[in-house]
Amino acid sequence: MNLSFETFLPLAPVILLSLTAVLVMLAVSIKRNHCVSYWITIAGQLAALVSIFALDGFAVDRVATPVTDLILIDGHAYFYGALVIFASLVCTVFLRNFIESYGNNKEEVYMLLLIAAVGGLVLVSSSHMAGFFIGLELLSVPVYGMVAYTHERSRSLEAGVKYLILSAAASAFLLFGMALVYAQTGTMLFADLADKLAEHGGYLAGFGIAMIVIAMCFKLSLAPFHLWTPDVYQGAPAPVGALLATASKLAIIAILIRFLGHITSDLTAVLQPVLAVIAIVSIAVGNFLALTQTNLKRMLAYSSIAHMGYLLIALIAGNSVDVVSANVYLLTYVVTSLAAFGAISALSHGGNALDAEEVNHYRGLFYRSPALAVALTLVMLSLAGIPLTAGFIGKFYIFMTGVTTSSWILLAALIIGSGLGLYYYLRVMVALYDRTGNSQADNVPAARASVAIVILLVVLVLWLGVYPQPALEFINTLH
Amino acid sequence: MIAIPMEQGLAVAGVLFTLGLVGVMVRRNILFLLMCLEVMMNAAALAFIVAGSRWGAPDGQVMFILILTLAAAEASIGLAIVLQFYRRHHSLDIDVASEMRG
Asked: Does the predicted model carry a pTM greater than 0.90?
C-alpha cells in the first residue's frame, strides 16, 4: 500500500487532537498554568472541528475514503466525529469552572479529555475490529481517570473503582467475542464480515457476536447491564458526567450502527427480538427507577438508560437500521443532555465535597439565578419530549420509525415510558419555582461561562424544536 | 511439531475467561479483582493467538500485542486508583466504599 500525505489527510481531526494532547502535556511539564492548558485545549478542539469542514466533510458528493484497512471515513464518520468534538468542547468549558476551585493538580484533566475525544473519533470511523477495539479503549481508559479525578471525594473514588472494573470486564467480553468471530471467519474487516459469516457461519461466530453485542449494551448502559450507571453518574464530577452521557454514548452508538450493518440477515433475525426485549426493559427500568430519585444526577442517569432504550428502537425496528431517525435522535439527545449536565456543573465546584446534585439544591433557583432556572426548565421539557423543543423532534422520528415498521409493542413502550418521564421531569421543574425553597447555605453563585454555554445550548434546543428543517435536511444528505 | 486443534485451544481460553469472570464476581479485594480482569484479558488474547494460528495469519498476534498494551494501561490506572482507595479507607475491600444507593 502506498502511504502518502493525501492518505492521512482525512485523519486531520484525529491528528490535530492528538497533537493538542501532547502540547498540553508539554505545557504542564514546563510550567503549570491552568489558563494556558485550558486555552490550548479549546484551540486544539476548534482546529479539529474546523478541519472537518475544511476537508469538505459534509459535501454532498463526497465518497467514503479508507485510510488503511482500519479506518473508513464517510459522511457519518464526520457527522459523529463533529458531534464528539462539539460535546468535548462544551465539556471543556464546564470543566474549567468546575476544576478552578479544586485544590490539587488541575491541568491533567484536559489531557485525559483530549485523549478520550481522540478515542471517540477513532471509534466512529473504524472499519476493522482492531480499530474498533483501540477506539473504544482510548475512549474508556481516560474516562476512568476523569471519573476518579476528584479523588478527595469518596464518591468520586467509588465511582472510579466501579467504572474501571465493570468497564474492563465489558472490554474483555468484547475482545473474547472478537476472537471467536475471527477464529470462525478468518477476517476482522467489517466489510468482509457478512460474506465470511455466510461462508463459514457456525455457532462460534454467533456466540462471538452475542458477546460483542453484550459488551456494547454494557457500554450504552442498557438494562440489564445498567447497574453501574447511576453510581458512576452520581459519583463522577458533573462535567465528566456530561462527557459520559454524550460523547462516549454517541461514539458507541455510531460503531454499533456500523457493526450491525455488516452482519448477515439470519443473525440479525436472531438478534432483533433479543434487542427488542433489551429496549423495552431499559425503557421500563430507566423510567420507573427515575421516579423515586431525589438526586438530579442519579435521575439523569436513569433517564439516560430510558433514552438509550428509545434510541435502540430506531436500530432494531424493521429489517435495517433506520440511520436517519437514529441520527436525529442522537443530535437532539446530545444537545439536551449537555445542557442538563451543564446546569449542574455551573452550580458545582471541584473544591466542595459534593456537587449541586440534590433536587433540593434547585428549590427556588428561579429567584436566585433566573436565566439558569428558565434554561433548566426548557431542558427538562426537551428531555420529556414536549413539542417545540428538540426532544420532541427526536422522539417524533423514533415514533415514525415504529409506525412505518409496525412495531406496535415497541411503540407502546415508547409512549408509556414518555408518560412516566413527564412526571419526574415536571417534579424538577416545580422545584425550580418553589418560593418556599431553602437554603442560603448552599447558595453557590453560578459560573458565568458555563451559564452562557448552557443558554446557547438551550437556544439550540429551541431552534431544533421550532425550525428543525435545516438540521433534518442536512442529516438526510449524509451518506 | 504437533499442531494443537483450534477447538482445544479455544476451550482453554474459554475456561480461563470463565475463571476470570467468576473471580470478578465473587472476589471483594480490589487487587484480586484487577488480577481477575487481567486473566480475562489474557484469555481473550490467547483466543486470538489460537485463531491466528488456524488462519496462518499474523492478525491474531498483532491483536495480542494490542491487548497487552491495553492491559498495562488499565493496570496502571487501576493501581493508581487502588493507592488512593487504600489511603482513604485503609482497606482493599471494595464493599467498604459503597455509600451510593438507590
From this structure: yes
Residue B71 amino acid letter: A
Distance (Å, whole) CA A438 – CA A339: 24
Asked if A154 and B10 come within 8 Å (Cβ–Cβ), the reply is no
Cα gap A261→A277, rounded to integer Å = 20
CB contact, 8 Å: A207 with chain B? no
A221 alpha carbon, distance to own chain's centre? 11
What count of other Cβ atoms lies within 10 Å of the Cβ of residue A362? 27
What ipTM score was computed for the predicted complex, to two decimals? 0.96
Question: Which residue segment(s) compose the domain that A383 sits in?
Answer: 5-476
- Is residue A440 scored above 60 in pLDDT? no
pLDDT band at A130 (very low <50, low <70, confident <90, very high): very high
Q: Which residues of B touch A355 (CB under 8 A)?
A: none
Q: Do A183 and B6 touch (CB under 8 A)?
A: yes
Q: Per-residue pLDDT tens for B49-60?
A: 999 999 999 999
- Check CB contact of A134 with chain B, cutoff 8 Å: yes
Cell numbers linked to A344: 449542574
Q: Residue A353's CB: how many other CB atoms inside 10 A? A: 9
Query: With an 8 Å Cβ cutoff, is A296 touching chain B?
Result: no
Total number of domains in chain A: 1
